[in-house]
Design a protein that fits this description.
The complex is a heterotrimer of chains A (about 300), B (about 325) and C (about 325). Chain A contains twelve helices and no strands. Chain A is mainly alpha-helical and about 300 residues long. The longest helix of chain A has about 35 residues, at about 85-120. In chain B, helix 10 (about 230-265) packs antiparallel against helix 12 (about 285-315). Classes of the chains: A mainly alpha (about 300), B mainly alpha (about 325), C alpha/beta (about 325). The interface of A and B includes residues 137, 236 and 256 of A. Chain B: One of its GO terms (cellular component) is plasma membrane.
Chain lengths: ~300, ~325, ~325
């Protein structure tokens, strides 16, 4: 296992060193992720603390001093006098949190259902795969929207705001488990019939142990690739839902919310409120996507 | 052939039944229809009466059957939010969505196939490489962002095209169309690009990879060995074989286009069913959500069915009506 | 002797790769005379198919002709424009590929593929083309050709499809037919029929055949002369009877020894030790030297060029250097 891991690492590392696209994408993604995580410490302002906001700072264009207060903001301010750069850092934090959490949710769910389907086979497998087929024939954003709407219906009105983020995570996660389940199921079905697994079963090794020590390591690569690509998709899904006004609450704006807000100021000429969050979202989604593409190729030399 | 069609129809009906069940559960269990319809001040007796009148005390199977029979006739009750019959709301907004989706689909297919063929035939050209690079951004760019950026450039800065609504429409009885007026057509441009761009890049990449695959096959090599012109090989043989799988996927994309219309309609304040659905999600307007779910599923199922049949028509290998293979 | 139909002189085919240039065919020369069947044998990777592809101008990029010349009736065809070469393919040189199951486009009927080939090369009307196509199918032995011509390839069995492929290769009456392993993918029971058909139909039309195969038995029965390729080089060439009964090149001797019916020692088959070198690791001197039982010092240093031998034979082996000097 250890030797396997080392060889795997070195192969991937080699392909990484020889792919400028992957390196640039990694640098961009890491920069965004790090600055989002460290937002409370590195953001120049606290954009969502009303006490620190000055309405007089509102609509300051990027890089020029405000006419009344003389304050300068690198990326300008919005109508409330919020620093756009700080809003982006905090927004990226929310976007990334929802994205990561949704992918982890989808991954855990997909791996679990995939293992059950592949290991148990029979009607359990047929049922799960039929559900997967039906779900896959609808776009995941539509599924996420529906789950989000249904979940909101079940939650009492006064708690909807507080739970919105979690509902969002579950909605995106639920809409995205199928690819994980399929790849794990395939591998489980293959491994199940291998002799060493049969032998382990005969001598009474607990199935969970077999699964964890033999099947999971085999699907690690593909699962990682799917997770990376789907992180980009989850970030976009979150941004889309928030842009549509059905995602995170306005009190915790993500990048999608910021773009929604920015769209309102397009016609009055305050383009920076829209542009910078859009660029941030695009850079984040594109870099993660490219990393996922590269990882898929790197782990799958056949495809090159 | 007939058995195949029948089997697909039965499958489709089963899927619809499952969706109807989900839709019914929404209706029945999400929120409290009685409270929603009567408001907070109603007496206990009013509530009991309404429960009885709505049939909420019947066995669940009976309620599901009622729901189904009403759904088949297009009766989904009143929208909680707008207090209008749901079906009326949807029908009045359907033409806007269908016109948008149809034009987007056609544009995406034609441009996607064209660019896909171009990039496959000129694999190492500068043009192809730049198209492929741009298409990568196109795939990563969220639909709503494309719309917003298009509005910024073409509506705000250049002021060439309208940024919202359908423009003037012409009422043709049960259908309102934006095709017949200049402002209607101008209003279509940006939403069509927004909605079609993603599908277009998808189709383009698919056509390109399929075509490269086909160009490597033996029958293309043999066609070259027979001295056929490049035109006949590329646009007769290779393109036809490429389009078989592409038509399937492109057909299925048509469903996605209708679903993604939700986003485009919101960006451009397009008065279609998608925007109606988003509002219903925001306000937990269950009857509209349930009806939309059934409608969109129905469209999906029908498209799937048509695509399957189309595949059958396009690929002679699937037609077994002719003589069986023999020496 | 009269002017050869096809004359290949010092043909070199190279594949530029990242690790340097591979020479897949290295200075191969041979002639094909009018009405003659030339068999080309060798192990897979010896360059048989590449030679055929080079002649018909269908080397897969990045493969290219890096030296030598190919003449068809004295006229050079190795550096023609793509369009000029296309006119020769099918019209003057026809080709039959290995796998009839993949050589035909599954989406076009046999009649469509035949008439398009005929119309490309011959000045006939659509109707005449169809009649010709039916006659051709009939000639290659498709029963009820008039009825079956509108069938799709998948309606035919493998052997029947190879007959269709032969009809296609001969559709425009070429002077030379290159048949590249035409029976490898077929059932043993139909292999002989197909080979006979190719020979018969070509003789009847006065076309020469270049029959590429790794099956010495087929060559023995069909060819007039045989060329033996080894690691991209010509080992031996001569009349088929002479080469088989009195092989001169040690490799050819080994090759004959490995054929059950031709083996002198009835009890066991002789095997050549080792395997053909990869293109990346061809030894200096004679490419066969590591496997040759008769190799001596010179074989490890200098590459032997084909040496003229009696009876219109050539052999590339230092063993015959002195002998031929005496002649």
């Amino acid at each position: 296992m250890n030797r396997f891991a080392r060889a795997w690492d070195s192969d991937v590392a080699y392909s990484f060193r020889h792919s400028p696209v992957a390196m640039v994408a990694a640098i961009v993604a890491l920069t965004i992720i790090l600055s989002a995580v460290l937002a409370p410490w590195i953001a120049p302002h606290e954009p969502f603390n009303p006490a620190t906001l000055n309405l007089m700072d509102g609509f300051t264009p990027p890089g020029t001093p405000n006419a009344f207060t003389g304050n300068t903001f690198i990326l300008g301010t919005d109508d409330q006098g919020r620093d756009i750069l700080s809003a982006i850092l905090y927004g990226a934090r929310i976007s990334l949190f929802v994205g990561f959490a949704a992918v982890v949710f989808a991954m855990v769910m997909g791996i679990t259902l995939g293992l059950i389907a592949g290991w148990r086979g029979g009607w359990v497998d047929s049922l799960l795969m039929r559900i997967a087929d039906v779900q896959m024939s609808f776009p995941s954003i539509l599924i996420a929207l529906l789950i989000f709407g249904v979940a909101r219906g079940f939650i009492p009105q006064d708690m909807r705001e507080d739970l919105a983020i979690w509902v969002l995570i579950v909605s995106i996660g639920l809409s995205d488990w199928v690819p994980f389940a399929r790849v794990v199921r395939g591998s489980a079905m293959v491994e199940k019939n291998k002799e060493y697994v049969q032998a382990a079963r005969v001598i009474g090794v607990h199935p969970t142990r077999i699964v964890v020590s033999h099947i999971l390591p085999n699907v690690l690569g593909p699962v990682l690739v799917i997770a990376t690509i789907h992180l980009a998709l989850a970030i976009i899904a979150e941004a889309t839902l928030s842009f549509l006004g059905v995602g995170v609450p306005p009190t915790q704006p993500s990048l999608g919310t910021l773009i929604r807000i920015g769209q309102g100021f397009l016609f009055s000429g305050e383009w920076w409120i829209l542009l910078f969050p859009s660029v941030a979202l695009l850079a984040l989604a594109l870099s993660v996507n490219l990393l996922g593409d590269w990882l898929r190729d790197a782990l799958n030399p056949r495809l090159r | 052939m007939i058995a195949f069609i029948l089997r697909r129809i039965v499958q489709s009906i089963l899927v619809m039944l499952v969706v109807a069940l989900v839709s019914f559960s929404l209706f029945r269990y999400v929120g409290d229809p009685v409270a929603t319809m009567l408001g907070q001040e109603a007496t206990l007796q009013d509530r009991a009466e309404l429960r009885e009148r709505l049939g909420l005390n019947d066995p669940i199977v009976v309620q599901f059957w009622d729901f189904l029979s009403r759904a088949v006739t297009g009766d989904f009750g009143l929208s909680y939010r707008l207090q209008q019959p749901v079906m009326e709301l949807i029908l009045s907004r359907l033409p806007a969505t269908l016109e948008l989706a149809l034009i987007s689909g056609i544009v995406a297919f034609i441009v996607g196939v064209g660019l896909g063929v171009y990039t496959a035939l000129n694999r190492r050209g500068v043009g192809s490489n730049s198209i492929m690079a741009v298409s990568l951004i196109g795939v990563s760019l969220p639909t709503f962002l494309i719309g917003v950026l298009l509005i910024w450039v073409f509506a705000v800065e250049l002021q060439w095209l309208p940024s919202f609504g359908r423009g003037e429409t012409v009422d043709l009885g049960s259908w309102t169309t934006g095709f017949l007026t200049e402002s209607g057509r101008a209003s279509l441009v940006l939403p069509v690009i927004t909605l079609g761009l993603y599908q277009m890049t998808l189709i383009m990449r698919l056509v390109r990879s399929e075509m490269l695959e086909v160009l490597r096959t033996d029958y293309i090599k043999f066609a070259r060995a027979r001295g056929l012109s490049n035109r006949a090989i590329n646009f007769g043989h290779a393109l036809k074989n490429t389009l078989v799988p592409v038509i399937t996927i492109a057909g299925l994309q048509m469903g996605s286009i209708i679903a993604f219309a939700i986003i485009t309609e919101t960006v451009f304040q397009w008065p279609g069913v998608g925007a109606l659905f988003i509002n219903s999600v925001q306000f937990v307007d269950v009857p509209v959500m349930a009806a939309y779910l059934l409608l969109i599923s129905f469209i999906f199922v029908v498209i799937n069915l048509i695509v399957d049949l189309l595949y059958y028509v396009v690929d002679p290998r699937l037609r077994v009506d002719r003589a069986a293979p023999g020496h | 002797m009269a002017e050869p139909l096809l004359s290949v002189r010092d043909l070199v085919v190279e594949f530029p790769t990242r690790r340097g240039t591979l020479t897949a065919i290295n200075k191969v020369s041979f002639d094909i005379h009018p009405g003659e069947v030339l068999g080309v044998v060798g192990e897979s990777g010896a360059g048989k198919s590449l030679t055929g592809a080079a002649i018909i101008g269908l080397l897969e990029p990045p493969g290219r002709i890096a030296g030598g010349e190919i003449r068809l009736r004295g006229e050079r065809i190795d550096h023609l424009t793509r369009e000029a070469m296309r006119r020769i393919r099918g019209k003057r040189i026809g080709m039959v590929f290995q796998d009839p199951l993949t050589s035909l486009n599954p989406l076009y009927t046999v009649s469509q593929q035949l008439t398009e080939t005929i119309l490309t090369h011959l000045p006939v009307s659509r109707k005449e083309a169809r009649e010709r196509a039916i006659a051709l199918l009939d000639r290659v032995g498709i029963p009820a050709a008039r009825r079956r011509i509108d069938d799709y390839p998948h309606h035919f069995s493998g052997g029947m499809r190879q007959r269709v492929v032969i009809a296609l290769a001969l559709a425009a009456e070429p002077e030379l037919v290159i048949a590249d392993e035409p029976t490898t993918a077929l059932d043993v029971s139909v292999q002989a029929q197909i080979i006979d058909l190719i020979k018969e139909i070509c003789m009847e039309r006065g076309a020469s055949v270049m029959l590429i195969t790794h099956d010495m038995g087929v060559i023995a029965e069909t060819a007039d002369r045989v060329a033996v390729l080894y690691a991209g080089r010509l080992a031996e060439i001569g009349p088929v009877h002479d080469v088989i009964t009195k092989a001169e090149h040690p490799y050819t001797k080994g090759l004959m020894g490995s054929i059950p019916t031709l083996s002198h020692d009835e009890d066991r088959l002789v095997q050549i030790p080792g395997s053909m070198p990869r293109l990346t690791a061809i030894p200096t001197g004679c490419a066969f030297n590591p496997r040759c039982g008769e190799a001596f010092a010179k074989c490890h240093v200098d590459r032997p060029d084909p040496i003229e031998r009696p009876d219109n034979r050539q052999v590339a082996c230092w063993l015959y250097e002195k002998e031929s000097a005496h002649v």
